[in-house]
Specification:
mainly beta; 4-stranded antiparallel sheet; 1 helix; binds FE2/S2 (inorganic) cluster
């Protein structure tokens, strides 16, 4: 269904929750070290505008750091003004990660999985810093246009549920 399609270039990120749910995320909404959650919204393959909230991999973390804080292996070309976006879908068994401090790795903010304790360093390409995940979270290329966040490519690594037909068709 259109709601399950992958983010495409040109989609706009909208708040996933809170008082502004469904409204475009604005640059000023993103506080340093306070990530927020978003979904992509844009044209689906049927040509209609749709909120792509029908699948876990499209729940997104939007975080903002000083550009100089973003370290390898972050794909900095896929960030803009220090804004970096990842799928929330844990690469272990697919739970939605949360944002919180992670003291074992001395991180003020990290993506931490409530299921088995997987932890990802958001400033270093979502590299795994704890628990069982075998791979980093999938980064989504982004650019700032006006004060909105616009998708600027496809996920840079495979989202968890790669067997979904929508994924296969969009990678062809
Ligand atoms: Fe995230 Fe297991 S599903 S650590």
């Amino acid at each position: 269904t259109p709601e399950k399609e992958l983010p495409r270039p040109g989609d706009v990120l909208v708040h996933a929750d809170g008082p502004n749910a469904g409204q475009p995320v604005q640059l000023a909404d993103i506080q340093p070290e306070r990530a927020l959650f978003a979904y992509p919204k844009g044209k689906a393959s049927n040509g209609k505008e749709v909120l792509k909230n029908g699948v876990d991999r499209n729940q997104l973390i939007v975080a903002k750091f000083q550009p100089s804080e973003l370290k390898a292996p972050t794909d900095v070309k896929a960030t803009d003004q220090g804004v970096i976006v990842y799928s929330r879908q844990c690469m272990h068994l697919g739970c939605a990660v949360l944002i919180q401090p992670y003291t074992p790795a001395n991180l003020k903010v990290a993506a931490v999985c409530p299921c088995h304790g997987g932890a990802y360093n958001l400033t270093a390409g979502a590299q795994v810093v704890g628990g069982p995940p075998p791979a980093p979270l999938a980064q989504l290329p982004i650019k700032v246009q006006g004060d909105q966040l616009v998708v600027d490519g496809f996920f840079l690594s495979l989202p968890y549920d790669i067997s979904e037909p929508e994924f296969v068709s969009q990678k062809e």
